[in-house]
Amino acid sequence: MTEPAVSLAPSAATRVAAIAAKQGKPAILRLSVEGGGCSGFQYRFGLDEAAQDDDSIAETDGVRLVVDPVSLDLLAGSVVEYVESLGGSAFRVTNPNAASGCGCGSSFAV
Prior knowledge:
Mean pLDDT: 86
Number of helices: 2
Low-confidence stretches: none
Radius of gyration: 13 Å
């Protein structure tokens, strides 16, 4: 079995499962990349009802992370984590393809 192109850390899987259960939705997190943000591209997260046929899918602890093929080109090798700190909590993407990013971590440049 090959490694998924993008992976979901256990911390993120736990948080997605909790949010999905509260909203009565499947535990499927969609990650995509859109133009914009202060660095050129920004990450977009959302719960999804189902994966599409051409999505890349990673699974951790029963939670699925789905990424469309266009976004995957910019996200290959990335890890999605959920971090909590005094400043707040958020999903964080560690992206080896990002040449630079903004201070808040929600946008990047290649």
